[in-house]
Amino acid sequence: MADKDWRTYWTTYEEGGTDRGIVHDVCNGIRMIAETGANDPVETMALSIAGAEAAEALTEALASEWALYTPAQVTATASAVFSQLEGVLANLQALKDTLDRMEARQETAFTAVAHDRLKHAAAAVEFARGFAPGVIDALHSLPQIVELPRDAHELLVAAAGLLGPDAELRTVHEPGAYREDDSGFGCGCEVLIACDGDVWRACTAATRPGT
Q1: CA angle, 75 as apex, 60 and 162 as ends, to 5°?
Q2: CB 174: neighbour CB atoms within 10 A?
Q3: Rounded distance between C-alpha atoms, residue 197 and residue 203, angstroms
Q4: Apex CA 36: angle with CA 89 and CA 23, to 5°?
C-alpha cells in the first residue's frame, strides 16, 4: 500500500486545500441522526434510504464525462466506495442480529432461511472488499498529467490563457493575495473577451459589461 491505509483516502481528501463545505451540506441530515443514535424504525429506515439514494446518485454522477479530473479524486472516490462495502458487510451482519432480536420478541419467526441467505450475501461482499487495497494502490500510483487550478483566481487565469490574444485578464488584487472563501463570487478579477466588435466579461458567467 502507499503511504496510508486505503480507508483514509476519502476521509482526508481536500480539494485545493479548502474546507469540505459541500460534504457537510450533503451529510448534515445523516450526521444529525448518527450523532444522537437512531432510536426507532423511522430513523433507521431514513438512514438506509439515504444510503441507497446516495449510491444511486453517485452512479449517475460518475456517468458524466466530467465527473472527476485527477487520480487523487478517483482514489478518494474509490476509497469511499470500498468503505461503503465495509458498511454493507457490517449492515448485513447487523440485519442478521436484528432478525434474532425480532424473533426473540416474537415479532417474526422461521428466520433460518433469511439468516442463511444474508450470511452468503455477506461472504460475497467480503470477497469483493478484499480487492480494495490493490485497487486503491493502483489508482494512487497513477500520474497526474495536468495541474488543476487551486482556486477561483487560478481558474480565471487559466481560462484567459486558453482564450488567447482576444482575452484580457483584469485583476483586482495583488498576485498571490487571493484567498478562497465560501461567498461563491470568486476573486473579483475578470476576463474581457473581444468578439466581433463586442466585449464580454467572464467571471462566474459570461456577460456583457454593465449587465
Answers
A1: 75
A2: 7
A3: 20
A4: 70
Which strands, in side-by-side order, build the sheet including 167-170? Answer: 167-170, 190-195, 198-202, 206-207
Cα 88 to Cα 17, 73, 79, 118, distances in angstroms = 31, 23, 14, 11
How far apart are the C-alpha atoms of 120 and 69, rounded to whole Å?
37
Phi (first) and psi of residue 195, to 5 degrees: -150, 115
pLDDT in tens, the chain (211 residues): 445 799 999 998 876 555 567 888 899 999 999 998 888 999 999 999 999 999 999 999 999 999 998 999 999 999 999 999 999 999 999 999 999 999 999 999 999 999 999 999 999 999 999 999 999 999 999 999 977 777 777 778 887 887 888 788 877 777 766 665 555 556 778 888 877 777 777 664 333 333 3
95: its cell numbers: 440485519
Strand partners, 192: 168, 201
How far is residue 88's CA from residue 122's CA, in Å, rounded to a whole number? 8
Cell of 122: 455477506
